[in-house]
Predict the structure of Fatty acid desaturase family protein.
Amino acid sequence: MSVTAVPVTPFESLEDHMEPLGEELDRIRAEIVAARGAEDARYIRTVIAVQRGLETGGRAALAVSLFPPAWLVGTAMLTIAKILENMELGHNILHGQWDWMGDPAIHSTTWEWDFLTPADAWKHTHNHLHHTYTNVVGLDRDLGYTILRMSPDQPWHPVHLLQPLYTALLAPVFEWGIALYDLEADAVPSGRKSVRAFLGDLAGLARKAVRQAAKDYVLFPLLAGPSALPCLVGNVTANGLRNIWAHTVIFCGHFPGDVQTFSYEEEQLDGETRSQWYLRQIQGSANIEGGSLLHILTGNLSHQIEHHVFPDLPSNRYAELAPRVREICARHGITYASGPLWRQYASMWGRVLRHAVPDGSRKP
């Protein structure tokens, strides 16, 4: 299925649709909340069991990875385990999608993920700032992660000429980029964040980084004995591949050409209604089309639109919600950006290249 070719629809032309849009989406949300139950709980517990089985098997194979087949099998299993933990488990559990179960082992307040940035720091920059101010220039720091220019409303600087290069270099070390980004060091000079708070967050990141490095790059290689070096290489490879995949999914869900950005004046954010918030989430996100395996490996963030509209609903519900949200958008004349991975990836790179230069900047 091709990328939906619907013209960008300005807010003011949708005034008559605002109230019905919000009411329809609210009804869908209430329906899913009421329907959550044993099947959903079984899903997330199954994913946890599969993820832990893959990680255990992968680490066991890497412990004897002097034999090349064991290295390939172990690295592949560990890579998939880390992707599942990061995308379908960590991201979604930290959104509170499973808090309704009342299980302290699968709760947003207790989960610490296998990712460099501490969970609390990520929940602030992602759950609060990004999901509240999605694609509003100057308020959503995830719009370019403070180093990329992804909208004509962002001022251009000569350094942006290099953004295609550092976008590519960011992918294999994405967890480090996100961890440094979550420190919000850029907020210290303006006084939006105190030096004391910054230093506290930096200390928290340092503690998490030491634990992560000790686990993957010291403990397990040492336990592998004669296989220490290939085990270390396998761990580095698994983390790098997980980072590249996370970078790909996140960028394809937020930066294809059909995705809109907004200025504060356009949005009149102070008086934004629930319906207007829904509309901005739809227009500021893009879906990736594919099969069930793709959806699971993306943490169901291939349904990025549905995730932004309903960020705290169980991720396994997004596939059934997507056709309904798409139909609502079509009926109200709202852009629903969706396409296969290769097309969204190419469109994302088109945006990176277009906004790297001053004379090629225009709203997508």
User: Anything to note?
Assistant: The first strand starts at residue 287 and ends at 289. Residues 11-360 form one domain. The chain has one domain: 11-360. The two ends are 21 Å apart (CA to CA).
